[in-house]
Amino acid sequence: MSAAARLIPPATLAGLANLELLARVVVEGSLIGLHRSPRFGFSQEFAEYRPYAPGDDPRFIDWNVFARADRTFVKRFFGDTNTRLTVLLDTSASMGMPAVPGAVAKFDYARFLAAAFIYLAARQHDAVGLCAFAGAVHVQRPPSARARATQALYHLLDELRPGGAARWPALFEHAAARLGKRGLTVLISDCLCEPEALGAGLRALAARGHDLLVLQVLDPDERQPRLGDGTLVEDVETGATMAVSVADLQEAYPRRLADHVQQIRQSVLAAGGHHQLMFCDEPLDRSLSAYLRFRERHP
Amino acid sequence: MTFLAAGFLTGLLALALPWWLHRLESRSPRTRRVSSVLLMRPADMPRQRHRTLRHRVLLGVRMLLLVLLALAFAQPLFERVLPDAGDGADSRPVLLVLDTSLSMTGSMAPARRQARRLLDALPAAVPAGVVAAASELTLLQTLTTDRARLDGAIAAAAADATRLDFDGLLGRLTALAASVTEEPVALHLISDFQASAMPDRFNALVADGEIAVTLHPVLARADNWQLSAELSEGGLRLVVHSHAAEARTVSIVVEDALGGRERRTLDVGPGARAGFTLPLPDAAGAPRWIRAALEDADAVPADDGFFVVVPSRSALGLPVFAGAGAATQVEYLRAAVAAAAPMFQPGPPTLSGPVAAVLDAGGLSAADSRRLERHLAEGGGVFMTVGPGTQRLGALPLSGATLTGRTLEADAAGLRVVTVDPRHPALAAGAADWRDVRVYRHLAVAPAAATALVALDDATGLLVEYPVAAGRVLALTTALDPRWSSLVTSPAFVELVDGALRYLAQENVPVAATAGEPLVIPASNAQLFDGSGARMLSLGDTAARTRVRLNRPGFYTLRTPNRERLLAVNPDPRESLPAAAEPGLLARWQAALRAGDHSAAADTASVDTTAADTASAPLALAPWLLVLLLMLAVLEPAAANAGRSIRT
Fold it and tell me: Does ipTM come in above 0.95?
């Protein structure tokens, strides 16, 4: 796998029918591009010496050091880095936009990301689970490190279709009740919702000890919609319509979008999570890099 | 054009296109599905209202564009009250031209009122003139600022029985104006603008030159009945044409030269014609003239009568003087006369008619020469040829001409005819082709006092005319013999004999003429008398004038030294047709004239016989509509693209 694989555009990746293959292409390319390898995955790796204190497990005393220095030191290792990764995938109708043949919709991009995360996590023996939601959580797979379960997740991702309106309170109630043990939770969504609602849910998850990574996926056209004056727009989820003006779209909308993204980011940060804004025309490795940096900080 | 014109209504169907497109657009606004409208804001209501308003304005502009386009092609006219002709802004001299043709008989009163109205509107310092236009242009009053004289000239303008044709009229008016003043003039033409007087070619209505012309149509819708007659084998056919809206029983009185008088009545329907045929007795008992007239008066009395001259059916004697050895020429002459001029009866050399033929003039006896000289002195005509006898004589008898002594003998190629004078009455038929004629022998005569009507390529004359005393001699300088020339075997020979004999016998004077048309005086020393016996020609005219116009209907007598002929003059029947030219044609004519400031439009007047002489002016709206159309065509994209910006 060459470094150029990192730069494979999403539209090209969309041509890969096999999500696992797609994930492998993305992840391998991403790892090759990193300057230093992550330290997790070496569960017996030496970390440091620390003077023995009462209560320490005498099995970790380094007797060779005691023989040379006549002092007892406890040998510390990095702990077991296996964690529980749960991908919360937004399958609401808004993720299906744009519904243009040949273009990568947000939902496709989100699926690629989810597959890449599943592959990456499985590669380092993390337990991986999936929770797909729209109006309600309609797919719930608890985290598992088994290879068969991972394969099932790929198939599951492949069968998912966008539809319905996202109901964030229901999602977070469900997640808080089902996620159980602490672990890493990756939320992949366009986050076109009220930032307060999202922040409240994330804070509830964070309170249960979950590490949060929010990948906000937007379509490039959503940066500045190309609409004519007097065009009637229809919300694909709610069906609400309104006539918009070109002047507003050109002047005020980009400012409102930036504010919205910033509010989402603040909400995520307030919950102790990490926020990454992505557009569907960007290489997928940016999100993986963010994930890896996140794992580096939270071994 | 009215708003119910089929073309205009058909053009309006195009309005459905922008209406349908706009309705489609308003019914199906562009709807785009988006992920969320969370971050979007609805367009404010003023903007929506503005958009709706602009939408409707745009629809109105586009529909107005199509309406204007259809209207422009329909060439509408806007009737407006006639403005004062001389509105003070124009100081050019003004010529008021009144149509005084026969058709204006019932319209002269409104025409005079129109002329006076124009005159009253003129500034006092602007000179004006009055012209009567019929078959001739008559300057009734030259340019003057004296309003009294102008009023008098207008009052003096009266319709005659002649015809006014608009073909080339403006050219003649321009020439007349140039003869009156060197300044550019404004010309007002007041006429009924008969449709029958309009030329076939529109260009004939336009004249070059600095002359501003305003058209002032006046029309009197008066009932008129017109009488016409036609001679045929069956007799005299008299027909009454009705140009009236009601049926009428008309009485026709027919009088003839023999004192006969007959009265007939006819029922004539509106717009119809009715007539009867009056049998004529045989040639011996036929009257010389017949006069028919409608008894009941109508609006145009001049076309209520008709004058007919019954042509004489007796043959004219043609004495043939032939020298010894001219038998061949006699035969050829007899054959040609029999073929082309049966009204002449070749006979022995006894002078009894107006014309005589002399074949090989060199063979004339002295007694015959004297008789022929007397014949010529009395105004007779002689058709003469040469031959061997003339060649031996060395001179051309009767004419006084001498031979140059140059004689072209037999030659294979012969001489060609290079010039034929088609204006001469003897050659006026002009149908024959002289190019095939070859002359092998001819006698060149001295050109003094002679007119070569047909010339050869050696610059000598083949047919020459000599005026001798009161008579004329047409001399052919070759013999009627195939050995002398191929003329006798050419079609030109038959035509020449016919034309020459008629000319010399003065039989080419018509027995009927149209009032106003020029009559060709066939001989010098002729005098013309009208129906009352008054002389038409002055003493100088009898010697020099060759054409004269007979403007009044009636019988005229043309008296030449040896003959007297009767001539019937009647009005042009087209002058009785009431149809006026289309207003659209007048508008185009007016537009083509590029009249001055106060004459930018044609004027029309609907004048009836009672009192209405209110003038109005139809303004051609098409140019203005096109200007408006152009402005809207610029406005439309501006309105359509207002508020839009180009996205880069």
Answer: no
